[in-house]
Amino acid sequence: MNQPSSPPAWQTRCQEYIGRSETCHDVMAPFASNALLATFNDSPTLTAGDSVPPLFHWLYCNPSPQQRQLKGDGHEQLGRFLPPMQYSHRMWAGSRIEFHEPLRLGTVATRVSYIDSVEFKAGSSGPLGFVHIRHCYMQNDRLCLSDVQTLVYRDSPKIPHTSVAPTARSPQSLDAVSLFRYSALTFNSHRIHYDLDYCREVEHYPHLVVHGPLMATLLQRHLQKAPPARLSHFRFRGLAPVFAGEGFRLHTDAADPNHATLIKADDTPAVSASVSWA
Predict the structure, then answer these.
(1) Which of these, 92, 152, 95, 93, lies nearest to 126 by C-alpha position?
(2) What CATH number does residue 55 fall under?
């Protein structure tokens, strides 16, 4: 009887990162939230003491590694907090978020992050690695928000070069300036969002890639009830990449008004999201 093969040593090493944690502190300054509102063409009127808008927590408590600690793709070198994955490309595949108490602008927040699990699977296009990270955002020693984030690692994706022009059926798009502003506000130096030559020559994308959490925020705003209700849970999952200038529309499920999908111009579902209310 054939014995199952042992996993590569580097995969075993990655599993040893389960349970690791890191802590970041940040004053949740109104500027960042107001700047993102301006990016959405809203009026920036938030001040200290106001609640952080839903999903704007992604603007705060982000690590700031030294320049020499970055890899060629702009991310921090693996092996410190995140496990040393040997696959070349990383994407944010989704998040499950629970809102416990409002985060307040102008107040110091602490984010404690934990590696909950590391998995390896065989995908249709090759092997995949998954890292599930639980981020806990606290103010005044009280848990305000928890965000279980899934990162997926893979080797070079094979993305066909397709048109990214908006269409009449897909009236929305995000240009390179919007992507730059979101990268700056989140201190995200991943080059797929701003370096077109890198996108095409190294990661084989046809154009700049729109941030997953940026599209998730658009979907949350699309689903927001009027008058505003208190959000208790939000979940999103990336299904396909969206590129700068590519048209899309936000579609609410007729059978479930708490579920929406960002759909590309060619009718490909790109991001799905669901909400629940307190």
Answers:
(1) 152
(2) 3.10.129.10
Name the 3-class secondary structure at 87: coil
Structure tokens at 114: 């934990």
For 61-114, how does the pLDDT look when each residue is reduced to its tens digit (9 = 90+)?
999 999 999 988 898 999 999 999 999 889 999 999 999 999 999 999 999 999
Domain assignment of residue 2, yes or no: no
How much is the pTM?
A: 0.91
Per the structure, the count of domains in the chain is 1
Identify the residue whose tokens are 């154009």: 207
Helix (H) or strand (E) holding 148: strand 142-154
Question: Does pLDDT of 158 surpass 70?
Answer: no
Report pLDDT digits (tens) over 108-143: 999 999 999 999 998 777 899 999 999 999 999 999
Question: How many CB atoms are closer than 10 A to CB 124?
Answer: 5
Residues facing 143 on adjacent strands: 138
- Cis before residue 227, ω within 30 degrees of 0? yes
pLDDT at 159 over 70: no
What is the C-alpha to C-alpha distance for residues 97 and 234, in angstroms, rounded to an integer?
5
Strand partners, 274: 235, 259
CA nearest neighbour of 153 among 208, 240, 82: 82
Range of the domain at 144: 9-277
Closest Cα to residue 148, out of 35, 251, 236, 214? Answer: 236
